[in-house]
Amino acid sequence: MDFPYKEQVEALQQAAERFYRLRYQMSNGGNLSIRIAGKEQMLVKATDVAFDEVGRDTVVVTDFDGNVILGDKKPSKEALLHGALYRVFPHIGAIMHCHSPYATAWAAAHEQLEFATHHSRLKLGGYVPVFDTRSYAVPKEYFPHILENLANHPDTCGFLLKAHGQVTLGKDMREAAYLAELVEETAQIAILSKIG
């Protein structure tokens, strides 16, 4: 049987390959997912899969609790966080998580992203917080804090994870990926603006 959701798989693949080329996500870390419309399910990258390997054979369909519905691989370690975000925020259609270097560097020493341009402030909702979850995968006990913070800032479309990376939330994969590129650019400008 052919794997369904061809368009969604292609959207994941295109975004993942772009981020691998941009060197925003190297090795086999990071993750990305798309909500499956009309169901409490998502298409998510499997664990131990590099972004340049994302395709029909390296993604799975899970419910929002990370239980595999379709596919023969284990879902990403962050599938539970993605599911929690989809469950609470119905406007989120796709999630990008990568370990882009400037965003990760900024998160190491700050509590939120600093906006150096009007464009980034506007597009990113004026607030991108940093969460310190003290782990390489966000533990479930941190979910309520993250979800409450985002609920209190409804225009927010991304956040940073200390010693980990960034997460962006879009209506589709295209938007989630563009937001992640903007987060990385914003962090780069913020860091460079402090040099000299």
Please provide a written account of the structure.
The protein is of the alpha+beta class and 196 residues long. The protein has helices at residues 6-21, 79-88, 101-107, 118-123, 143-152, 173-193, and strands at 31-36, 41-45, 59-63, 68-70, 94-98, 130-131, 158-161, 165-170. It is built from 6 helices and 8 strands; from the N terminus they run H-E-E-E-E-H-E-H-H-E-H-E-E-H. Helix content is 36%, strand content 18%. Helix 3 (101-107) packs across helix 6. The longest helix is centred in the last third of the chain and has 21 residues, at 173-193. The mean pLDDT is 92. The protein has a single domain, classed as L-fuculose-1-phosphate Aldolase. The chain has an 8-stranded mixed sheet, with helices on both faces. The relative contact order is 0.17.
Give the mean pLDDT: 92
Number of strands: 8
Question: CATH superfamily, called what?
Answer: Class II aldolase/adducin N-terminal domain
- The main sheet orders its strands as 4-3-2-1-5-8-7-6
H/I helix tally: 6
Task: Please mark out the parts with pLDDT under 50 across 5 or more consecutive residues, or reply none.
Answer: none
Structural class: alpha+beta
CATH architecture label name: 3-Layer(aba) Sandwich
Q: Termini, distance in Å?
A: 59 Å
**Element pattern in H and E:** HEEEEHEHHEHEEH
Task: Specify the CATH class.
Answer: Alpha Beta
Spatial shape: globular
